[in-house]
Fold this sequence. Notes:
Two copies of one chain form a homodimer. Chain A is of the alpha/beta class. The first copy, chain A, has two domains: 6-62, no CATH class; 74-239, Rossmann fold (3-Layer(aba) Sandwich), CATH 3.40.50.300. Chain A contains nine helices and seven strands; from the N terminus they run βααββαβααβαβααβα. The first copy, chain A, has helices spanning 6-32, 35-62, 85-98, 108-114, 122-141, 155-164, 177-183, 188-193, 224-239, and strands spanning 2-4, 67-69, 74-78, 103-107, 145-149, 168-174, 215-218. Chain A is elongated. The two termini of chain A are 24 Å apart. Chains A and B meet through strand 1, helix 1, helix 2, strand 2 and helix 5 of A and strand 1, helix 1, helix 2, strand 2 and helix 5 of B.
Amino acid sequence: MYIETRKRAIVKTISWRILATLTTAAIVYGLVGRLDIAAAAGGIEMVLKMIFYYFHERAWNKFHIGKHQVTPFVLWFTGLSGSGKSTIADQVYRKLKKKGYKVERLDGDTVRSIFPSTGFTKDARNTHIRRIGFLASMLEKNGIIVVASFVSPYKESREFVRELCDNFVEVHVDASVEECERRDVKGLYKKARAGEIKNFTGIDDPYEKPESPGLYLNTDEESEEKSLKKVFAHIGQFLD
Amino acid sequence: MYIETRKRAIVKTISWRILATLTTAAIVYGLVGRLDIAAAAGGIEMVLKMIFYYFHERAWNKFHIGKHQVTPFVLWFTGLSGSGKSTIADQVYRKLKKKGYKVERLDGDTVRSIFPSTGFTKDARNTHIRRIGFLASMLEKNGIIVVASFVSPYKESREFVRELCDNFVEVHVDASVEECERRDVKGLYKKARAGEIKNFTGIDDPYEKPESPGLYLNTDEESEEKSLKKVFAHIGQFLD
Lengths: 240, 240
């Protein structure tokens, strides 16, 4: 981060204007050989260029091609373990990062690895999601796009996060429990079936589907590419 | 947040150069009345100004007056309730904000009001501080200065936060329990003495003083103004 004082900007502008005007005067003197004409050219140039520069800037400001106004937002992927939340969220994060946006990624697994003590009861999970939501809203408030992926099975805490954020986009990544269990990328369904994990969403704990999510993806039926397209079509409203 | 594509920047530069050169040529034509000289002046100007502009920028880049390079950091105030942490932290935050820095304020009371369920046992407090530390480090990583004030009585979690952050400045705001209790701004010591609050730091729970804090303030002896001066002298290293 750099901070430039206003004074520096003004002095720099003046120094350039002097240098530019002297250059013009010197060129004219070199071509015409008369000091009075060189001085007149320099003087007229200084005034005209300041006026033209101002209008040139104004004109460009009206013309928005190649310029994006970005409204920070929190893109919140919710869905069963194995639904494909993290995969899609990772892609969205990478694409945004590559395009130069300020963006942060929050993922259930990463955060849990830092706070392994977080329990799996309803209360513990709701509190956990509320805390993550607070973190997300702080980042958003500071101009940073947040791409979050958490099972976040309960409406209550998702609504809490929605309230905290200015622009909360809930993305329901839907897939049937059967399909998620078939994929079982992390082997968690097997453990849940064996009783090694208690309160596992989809097995012995409910997933409360969002009633009207900002975006609905169905990874049983849609390709990852299609899901990604839908996400970018939806968040386009914040990107320019 | 605005994002400008490189293409826009290039096209804008070219459009200005064309406008500027045509202006110069027109001025010269107006003064001298010869198209060949006007064209020559415009051509020479275009080349010279591009070269001069480059060196003008380079020269200013070597000259750092009025320009601050900011390294984000986490300024962490720790101390007893009533020691004056929040008051000093508030002032530091306000001053930094006013100077145009990107800065976020995290305060024990504010955060607890959002998560009232946070307990006061050693474990609960340590976990709470770790979570705040994670939030602080995320903000820092995204270029934002963090001014945090938490009793944070245990070394263990303060060290955890230190590890998470790139630039962690621990500020010990020291004041005797007697003095803090005399001030008792929030009436908490009274409640703790009456047994209405359990595990109150300084009364029936220990405060583990930092052994080698980045900065030591003693509000029993120093004025608020002096404390502030010490803080700004210390964080100067990150501000330019």
